[in-house]
Amino acid sequence: MPDTERMLVLLRHGESEWNLKNLFTGWTDVDLSPRGVEEAKEAGRRLKAHGIVFDVTFTSALKRAQNTLALTLAEMGQTGLPESRDKALNERHYGDLCGLNKDDARKKWGAEQVHLWRRSYDVQPPGGESLKDTVARALPYYCQEILPEVLRGKRVLVSAHGNSLRALVMVLDRLTSETIPAVEIATGVPLVYRLKADSTVASKDIMTS
Fold first, then answer.
1. Is 91 annotated in the active site?
2. Phi (first) and psi of residue 54, to 5 degrees
């Protein structure tokens, strides 16, 4: 089987209503903003223009990721594909920060502390998850449910969130706890991975056009 057939595409949901308002979202089930809807459709147009066809999809238990998936596939003319939803792919839980404006949080706790909560690997916000915690639930799901489909030759689309996808990118790109905090995943921009038979990355394309 050619390496190009082992395709995994990661897609962060389009801008959400709370992204727009600069609020910590986490597991709060908010929908896409109008811009987020357009970002999801644009992702579909980009994937379609590259001739990509999917066999199976995965998403989180949150509607902003589910709706991004639906809008993307509709734009591609590929509705009705098998879809698995699981909270293992949910966004990182921000605990007591959920619903707070990020600027207000900086005023309350200080910019350095808030940056540490947002970008460090293993520091938890009050009552919430660190990126390390997110990796601990997202990675087993990837290994048990998603990766086997890819290695069987299925072309897989995963629509999820900034931090749950960072957990997967950390493994795929062989990043460390020191290097992953600097990684940003843009909303609505497909990351196209082609994997070798041993599950290592043969190529990666950030589909910005």
1. yes
2. -100, 155
